[in-house]
Amino acid sequence: MALATLARRGAANLLPAVMIGLCAFVVFGPLTNLFLWAFAEKWFFPARYPTEYGFDFWQRVFRPRAGAWTSLFNSVWIALATVGLSMALAVPAGYALARLMLPARAFIMLIFLLPQAFPSLPIFVNIAHMFYGLGLNGTYTGVVLVHSLPGLVYAVWIATAAFGAVDRTMEEAARNLGAGPMRTFRDITLPQAFPGLVAASIFVFLDSIDEFTGTFFVGTPDISTLPILMFNASMGGNYQIASITALILLVPSIGFMLVIERFLKADVLSRIGR
Amino acid sequence: MLPGLLLIAPALLAIALLYVVPLARSVIFAFVDEGGGLTTAHLRTAVELYGRDVVFTVLVALASLILISVVSIAIAGYLTLGATPWAVTALRWLYRWPLFIPFIVAGQTARSFLARNGLMNGLLIDSGLMDPAMAQSLLDWRGLVLTFAWKQVPFVTLLLAGAMASIDRSTIEAARNMGAGRFRCLIEIVLPQVRGTLLVGLILSLVTIMSVLSVPMMIIAGNPTMMTSMMAHRVTYYGDYAVANALGLFSYLITAVAAYAYLRMTLTQHTEGAR
């Protein structure tokens, strides 16, 4: 009797187990491949797996004055500058869109939606063409500006949602108790919107760290970021260097994946795009 | 009204310079010749040289979207209706991972995973599922479809699972009580209610597929390839912005057709609802 129940339960669990196994293979198979290449010292055809493992290529990537350090610093500085610029523009814009009277508000929201609604490659091509005339190609300013286009869009959306979710009764109470508008904003509004703004900054930072197309047109060959370094290594057939760079790129992405839910609350999330 | 305008002015100026002006230029320069006159020569060159790539792009995008819909509906459906709690939890944890992996990294993993001597074939041969002589490279349109789907399925699933979680459970319970199977329930009860969300997810995925440059450059070596790759080729090798812009017009057009189809569909839904 007990055996029959057990057998039935086993059969009921078999199909889900196969399905989960398949999903795990599809999701983690390619990532395992990345790990193998990153630690493979020798992996030549016809060997199906690396024949020698080691850290030789890690030493080559991270030796002093190697290109990887320059690319890493470039990536981080460009991302921080992009966050700074995007948030400086998006915080006042988001506050205005969420809380103040604006003519043609729907039209303005539409303008901030458009860059995500149409293919961006022709835009990057024409930005590069414009920047070429202005002498901005191959400069940090140029790359930060081109990264700020997608950055600004995300930042405005999330900042608008974050300010929209702020409890107005508390602001009114503060005003009734005699606080000025600036003090109310600083002590009541900003602290409540803060987690949403942090989430926006994280999105902009990640987007800039991973950005390839804009940097490819505006930055290369003078400015190399991690994605450009990875691309060049991969196209040059150096899969070890490419895989190591890819793993470095994964660190912020996976790290933020684990913390983002703490900052992006459901009440803010449900207001994005309104 | 004035304080609002003052606060939003810098952001609007930035979007005008970084988006509206390049957008206008991309359209205008597709039709302007060297002397400043109007011409359709760039469009004709684009069709002549890259017509095959445009068709290839459309087919790859369609195949990707079909694969994305089928897999996302299956995963989101299982998350909503699944009967094995541990499997639902495991799937919920598993499916999101590719969402956070940059396209360029996805391109690199696909490049080495799907190659003829790649890890996928190696694992299939070692597990006895495949004959070594059958091993072939998937680094063509199939590699593109698989990579785009790998990246976009979690995104569409996230949207779909959210929409499915918020629909009225009582209709599902009623259908289940009447004896409808889980699969029938998903297709006939749940799916019609989240159709709008699915379409939004697919259109955003289409825009992404039409915008990503790194994946086609890393996966496809020869011709035909995606339009994105050809636009970059035209600009970096020939400095020919005019033909690149003409190609860009086609990518706008394809997205616009999809957006128009979506709008028509939602509008008919609204008028039907009003009746």
Automatic annotation (TrEMBL), chain A:
It comes from the Bacteria. Gene3D superfamilies: MetI-like (1.10.3720.10). Residues 72-260 form the ABC transmembrane type-1 domain. The chain crosses the membrane at residues 12-40, 76-98, 110-132, 144-166, 187-206, 239-264. Keywords: Cell inner membrane, Cell membrane, Membrane, Transmembrane, Transmembrane helix, Transport. It is found in: Cell inner membrane; Cell membrane. It is a multi-pass membrane protein. Belongs to the binding-protein-dependent transport system permease family. This is ABC transporter permease subunit. It comes from Pseudotabrizicola sediminis.
